[in-house]
Specification:
Elements: H1 10-19, H2 40-50, E1 68-69, E2 75-79, H3 84-89, H4 95-107, E3 116-119, H5 133-150, E4 154-158, H6 160-167, H7 173-176, E5 180-183, E6 188-193, H8 196-201, H9 206-223
Parallel strand pairs: 2-3, 2-4, 4-6
Antiparallel strand pairs: 1-3, 5-6
The structure holds iron/sulfur cluster.
């Protein structure tokens, strides 16, 4: 896909350049009607998560990582689990991977503050190991409540653990990306892409991640009409 410079703002140009990508797609129009705020149920959910001891990760966490962003967001970005820095700061996707996620979003015309970012697990697995199946099962209720309250237009599953957990599959990310899935529990479109931490290790895949973001934008655009 060729660049369309006339549609790029300076921030987007910079982000694309930093990602080594020279492509662009038309901007998504603003939503006609804003969703209502999630209200007091949201505070109750935050309180429940911060006091949750439903799995063994409660014993080793510094704090829970609930999620961050706009509660009226159209995009819900779901990653795997907090890492060491997220556990320390209480916010998902910080550090180098978080910076790359921000750049990817910026390239797509979205500020980090315009989406909501959460993880499958709200507590850090020790030594950044993969989440256990029993931990994912125990924490699923929190994410399901978040999705119900946020009512996003689209879920972007970031990385293997998020994609496979949400879609209940063992299919590799490389075969899950490139199409729009149905997140059946909420009847929402779901697009899969690579985790920014993987992209830092494999920069050659950034172009595919960009294609995933374009697919996500194309999916959201008609829903915003
Ligand atoms: S990972 Fe989820 S289920 Fe386990 S203690 Fe943390 S909030 Fe509770």
């Amino acid at each position: 896909m060729q660049a369309r410079p006339g549609r790029l703002n300076p921030g987007q140009r910079r982000a694309l350049a930093e990602m080594g990508i020279d492509v662009w797609v038309p901007a998504v129009p603003a939503p006609a009607v804003a969703a209502p705020p999630v209200g007091s149920d949201w505070q109750a959910l935050q309180h429940a998560v911060s006091n949750c001891h439903a799995c063994g990760l409660a014993a080793t966490r510094t704090q829970t990582v609930f999620g961050v962003g706009d509660t009226n967001a159209r995009w819900l970005i779901i990653g795997e689990a907090p890492g060491a820095e997220e556990d320390r700061q209480g916010e998902p996707f910080v550090g180098r991977a978080g910076q790359l996620l921000n750049e990817m979003l910026s390239a797509a015309g979205l500020a980090r503050e315009q989406v909501f970012i959460a993880n499958i697990l709200k507590c850090r697995p020790p030594a950044n190991r993969d989440p256990g199946a029993e931990e994912v099962a125990a924490c699923a209720v929190h994410l399901q409540c978040q999705i119900e309250l946020l009512r996003p237009r689209l879920i972007l599953a970031v990385g293997r653990i998020a994609a496979q957990s949400l879609l209940q599959t063992t299919t590799p990310v490389g075969r899950l990306r490139g199409r729009v899935h149905d997140y059946a529990p909420a009847g929402l479109p779901l697009v899969v892409t690579y985790h920014p931490a993987y992209l830092l290790r494999s920069p050659g895949q950034k172009r595919r991640a960009w294609e995933d973001l374009c697919l996500a934008r194309q999916t959201v655009a008609p829903l915003a009409a």
